[in-house]
Amino acid sequence: MHRAHTAFSLALSPMAHKNFATWLLKSSSSQQLAKVTAAAAVRTYNSAAAEPFANGSTASYVEEMYNAWLRDPTSVHTSWDAYFRSNSYVSPPNLAPVQANTLPLTAFNFGGAVAGAAPDSKTIDDHLAVQAIIRSYQIRGHNIAHLDPLEINTPELPGNSSTKSIYANFSFGEQDMDRQFKLPSTTFIGGDEASLPLKEILNRLENVYCNKIGVEFMFINSLEQCNWIRKRFETPGVLNFSPEEKRLILARLTRATGFEAFLAKKYSSEKRFGLEGCEIMIPALKEIIDVSTELGVESVIMGMPHRGRLNTLANVCRKPLNQIFTQFAGLEAADDGSGDVKYHLGTYIERLNRVTNKNIRLAVVANPSHLEAVDPVVQGKTRAEQFYRGDQEGKKVMSILIHGDAAFCGQGVVYETMHLSDLPDYTTHGTIHVVANNQIGFTTDPRFSRSSPYCTDVARVVNAPIFHVNADDPEAVMHVCKVAAEWRATFHKDCVIDLVGYRRNGHNEIDEPMFTQPLMYQKIRKHKNCLDLYADKLIAEGTVTGEEVKSVAAKYENICEEAFALAKTETHVKYKDWLDSPWSGFFEGKDPLKVAPTGVKEETLIHIGNRFSSPPPNAAEFVIHKGLLRVLAARKAMVDEKVADWALGEAMAFGSLLKEGIHVRLSGQDVERGTFSHRHHVLHHQLVDKATYNSLQHMYPDQAPYSVSNSSLSEYAVLGFEHGYSMTNPNALVLWEAQFGDFSNTAQSIIDQFISSGQSKWVRQSGLVMLLPHGMEGMGPEHSSCRVERFLQMSSDDPDYFPPESDEFGVRQLHDINWIVANCTTPANYYHILRRQIALPFRKPLILCTPKSLLRHPEAKSPFSEMSEGSEFQRIIPDNGPAGQNPSSVKKVVFCSGRVYYDLTKTRKEKQLEGEIAIVRVEQVSPFPFDLVKEQANLYKNAELVWAQEEHKNQGSWTYVQPRFLTALNHSRDVSYVGRACGASTATGSKAQHIRELNALLNDAIST
Ligand SMILES: Cc1ncc(C[n+]2csc(CCOP(=O)(O)OP(=O)(O)O)c2C)c(N)n1
Ligand SMILES: [Mg+2]
């Protein structure tokens, strides 16, 4: 921390100049030094490596590489060879290396030189050196800025390399300090002045880049954006605050600090994950929101972890304090659900922003303990809100994500979420990330929790500027927040605020931090809190008096006391008070057990089918791939025959919902074509780039929007995103499809923490559909199973409880369960179950095993009559063949689910056992159709009952269905298992073994 200053003061003292100059001369010619610096930078801190053309020193290195390559392409590393071959290398004028004669002299207009006369080479060198120093500050100033209030942790830069690299081109002496230098267009430190004395240039740069703010931005590819940032930080006077502004900061800081102190006083033994040491986060968030509201934002969606969450709810969202305090009282809940701990709950508030006098909506999305898991959920929710408001540029709705330092760099989902930030169908047009960087994660120091210098380096991949700021300097923090909000409003891209503070207590208030961080905590114990430091400063400069400071604090304490008294009168907590996504009007006036019909008029099916099988209207100009013309022709033939295959059935569901005004969004890897090349929702012009046609967007003139988008190769973030999207509006069908169901487990925390348990914890519903290609088709262990057993294991219906039978049995079960797990065998049933998602008077996630080979199976087709009016979803499909027609002669009933049905029927046919063996398909596995299973079993009174599955015995549905069968049969009959033995892996990698296993199971099942 002191290094820059030592170096700088040395540089400014007469002796030091000698030293500096000698040091420079000794170390090398500037070229040599540049190489050393570049190499050191590559090893120790990759910012220079990541921006090889962004600074003078590395630029000269690149140029040397280039010259070497010109002489002999094999003399450089292959990566350089490839690069130079690509013709990408141009030496940008503003990034030119600092060497005499590398730019034409005419390119410069030197202050002080006689007009028209060519300047001497020393003048040129000196000006270039000044330019290089300015660039150095812009690039590396943050490395030596005073960011850490405790002054113990700095980005790990061995030796003085950072200081040296800033002064790499410093060859001036005391006599040069008063020399006037013309300022290049890439700096704004001069304000209205075109040139400044060297001393002033250095002073100003030091102040801008090495003080309490460290701006990391020079890796950004856009010159416009770099200049925009330079201007915001370099312009003289940007850090001047009016007395009113200062008083507002003080008042906000007082509340933030007072809130934690109040909780500490009243609930000393309760965990609250206080913000002490980073209280400035509250005024910071308020500043971001104020500026953003001023710039047009009307709705802010926030995601955040435990730290400071209650404070955020209280002081940023202004959630009634009594509701917060009630959470500490250990009261019973007044409504259904299992609830969650207080520092996970969400909230939604609409209120007037007192600073801007504009109405604003604030939502904090409920989240699990799983750090950062909420990030993509917030993004999806934000995107959806932007979509429904027609806010295509994100001017009205924005997201703020708050992170802990350890989690931000440790959790991969942060990276996955960042990579959604600029994708057309996933962008939220800029997220402001705020890191509450207390320089510790639980008990782990940064040096053991990350390999990067900063916890924020992940943001560099998306060219997001990073504003590091010392959390003990409220005015610096407010400036950074203002710039961040303006950045977002201007460029609609992500940015990061790294609030470098500390954690005054242990990880929670009951933890002892001295066990593991003794030295850090000795410092912390002696360190005054930010409020006191700031109050002292404002008192000293005469902005406020000591009495004012005390009275603001006392006033807030009174407010807390009153709310505390009110909270004591409460007898119950209400989970509904903590809902983050209220669906106003959705439940109103609805019969909670009435499902709208899912069949539609046949003419609607024909219309959708015709559209879906037609080329674009401008077919003459739109060149379609020949193979797709065949696909369209085959679809048309099916429509003429009034039958649908899988893709057509799906299109019927989507098209009919779109017609009814239901927005449909399908997202996942390669979903536009479909992993198995069956869907083809987006037709590509074979000759024109980006010319596409999507017939589902053109079904009806007044239809709802249809969106289908190939996602990034992520499951965790994209599934989280779609879950968030589904939370916003119940009148939308949101589907996420896995490439293969097997890959969905990389999103396991979204599945476990949000989808399966979200309603129970946070009284929030979601109708998200997960499409999981599943089936044992000899494709090996990772292309066979979506692990349906895991979803079933998380289903919340009781295996031992047979609900009362009634007409509403099915819907009541759906109402009571946490989600639906199904494996449909016909396009019609697939169509109905998708439509049922919207027809239900509530929302439940749907986990759907979807087929692969069945997509083209000649028998896996449905007549339109199974989708038209009067038809509905079949939880169980009974045997409709000879066995079903003559049940008394049936010896065995094979219950099964999914594609194995087709193998079983084929074998049964081959063995000519169609009259003796009935095959019953359980299409909706969970909630378990107790009533229909009982009915089927009763139909075949004398038959043996078996469950056949292709998955291994410890996988698939068996462990879920077995106890439920027994309940359905009232333990009066047994059901035995037919299928593969238990297995550690989901499937064999050997085709031969696969076939052997399949044949064995078919033979076992189809035998009497
Ligand atoms: C995914 C995940 N892994 C582990 C934990 C356990 N855990 C809770 S807090 C914490 C430390 C978090 O450190 P940081 O992100 O810096 O936040 P801080 O508590 O310092 O504010 C850990 C490891 C968790 N909650 N989530
Ligand atoms: Mg931390």
Automatic annotation (TrEMBL):
GO biological process: glycolytic process; tricarboxylic acid cycle
Record-given protein name: 2-oxoglutarate dehydrogenase, mitochondrial
InterPro entries: 2-oxogl_dehyd_N, 2oxoglutarate_DH_E1, DH_E1, KGD_C_sf, ODO-1/KGD_C, THDP-binding, Transketolase-like_Pyr-bd
Subcellular location: Mitochondrion matrix
Alphabetical list of Gene3D superfamilies matching this protein: 3.40.50.12470, 3.40.50.970, Multifunctional 2-oxoglutarate metabolism enzyme, C-terminal domain, TPP helical domain
Domain Transketolase-like pyrimidine-binding: 644-857
GO cellular component, one term: mitochondrial matrix
Any one GO molecular function term: metal ion binding
SUPFAM superfamilies reported for this sequence: Thiamin diphosphate-binding fold (THDP-binding)
Family, as annotated: Belongs to the alpha-ketoglutarate dehydrogenase family.
E.C. number(s) listed in UniProt: 1.2.4.2
SMART domains assigned: Transket_pyr
Stretches assigned to coiled coil: none
Record lineage: Eukaryota, Metazoa, Ecdysozoa, Arthropoda, Hexapoda
Alphabetical keyword list: Glycolysis, Magnesium, Metal-binding, Mitochondrion, Oxidoreductase, Thiamine pyrophosphate, Transit peptide
Co-factor(s): Mg(2+); thiamine diphosphate
Catalytic activity: N(6)-[(R)-lipoyl]-L-lysyl-[protein] + 2-oxoglutarate + H(+) = N(6)-[(R)-S(8)-succinyldihydrolipoyl]-L-lysyl-[protein] + CO2
Function: The 2-oxoglutarate dehydrogenase complex catalyzes the overall conversion of 2-oxoglutarate to succinyl-CoA and CO(2). It contains multiple copies of three enzymatic components: 2-oxoglutarate dehydrogenase (E1), dihydrolipoamide succinyltransferase (E2) and lipoamide dehydrogenase (E3).
